Amino acid sequence: MIQHLIDGILIGAILSLGATGLTMVMHMLRFANFSHAELLSIGAYSALVFEQLFKAVLPFTAGTIGPLSMTWALAVAMIASMAVTGASAVLFDKLIFKRVREKGEELSMVFASFGLALIIRNVIGLVFGLQTQLFSKDIIFATVLSRDPLIMVKPDQIAVLAITLLIIFALHLILSRTTYGYALRAVAENPSLAQVNGINLQRMIVTVWLIGGGLAALAGVFYGLTNQISPVIGRDLVLPVFAATIVGGLGSIYGALLGGFIVGIAANLALTVLPSGYSPSVPFLIILAVLLVRPHGLFGEERQ
Questions:
Q1: How far is CA 27 from the centre of its chain?
Q2: How many CA atoms lie within 13 A of 225 on its CB side?
Q3: Are 117 and 245 in contact (CB under 8 A)?
Q4: CA 20 to 30 Å from 3, out of 155, 189, 271, 290?
């Protein structure tokens, strides 16, 4: 039970990163972007490419960082993958969502996001193949925290949790203590009024896509670091990420953080009473429960 709880917390950190970017996009643009989870795949695979590139060009970066399986090359590759994924998100908005937004309705954007998700998933499978891949093939032994009950944690999992909390806290400071953060929040609440006050709406939209894409890239890299990389990462994580977003409430950074942990813990604790094949249904049950009891989420504000 305790081991499942700890594993749920560590998985929840990854879901929190994905949900934070999604909740910002959904809060500002008012549509459910089902292609957001595919940005995790873009981030993971771009980091894989950059890591191999940095190892080839700068061989000294092939060494691992302390007890982690992460190499210095991968650490730099993560930053590059955040830039690539953020730029990809902006490009998708310019080519697809912006045009649909100007000519269609919110529901049309949802359908467009479904189509985009399928395209991204299949292109990744075509380019990289359908087989799973690993950032590192080295065996990293877990640290035994307790023998009765047996509790084990890998150093990579601790690093993922720590980095996630630091990033969420830094993002909170930016949104709550800077002029740029105030502008982002103003546009999310009332785009028309924000424009009247001189805020560049299009620039704010680009910023949100960059932040959302960057956070998704980190989530994808962290998922690949603690599991495996495959073209179906987005398909496997889209429901948990949406569940975390809905539980926390649209537009709430801390809500997305808490929602990710709730979903991760619930899915792992379910393994103690349900066969593993039923575990993916837990996020769906959480979504239904939250929509019935508190449709706007734990920290979301009810819209008039």
A1: 16
A2: 29
A3: no
A4: 290
Per-residue model confidence as pLDDT tens digits over 10-46: 888 899 999 988 988 888 888 889 999 999 999 999 9
Cite the DSSP H helix spans in 149-278.
155-177, 179-189, 191-196, 201-226, 233-248, 253-269
- CA-to-CA dists, residue 183 to 200, 202, 301, angstroms: 9, 12, 18
Amino acid at 254: Y
- Looking at residue 51, its amino acid is E
- Three-class secondary structure assignment of 80-148: HHHHHHHHHHHHHHHHHHHHHHHHCCHHHHHHHHHHHHHHHHHHHHHHHCCCCECCCCCCCCCEEEEEC
Is the peptide bond between 240 and the residue preceding it cis, with omega within 30 degrees of 0? Answer: no
What angle (nearest 5°) sits at the alpha carbon of residue 281, between those of residues 277 and 286? 150
Among residues 83, 88, 72, 2, which one has the least CA distance to residue 39?
88
Tokens for 208, please give them. Answer: 């949100």
Beta pairing class for 143-147 and 150-153: antiparallel
pTM of the model: 0.89
Do 218 and 167 contact (CB within 8 A), yes or no?
Answer: yes
Contacts of 186 (CB under 8 A, 6+ apart): 193, 194, 197, 199
Q: How far is CA 104 from CA 30, 96, 128, 220, 303, in A?
A: 13, 11, 34, 31, 22
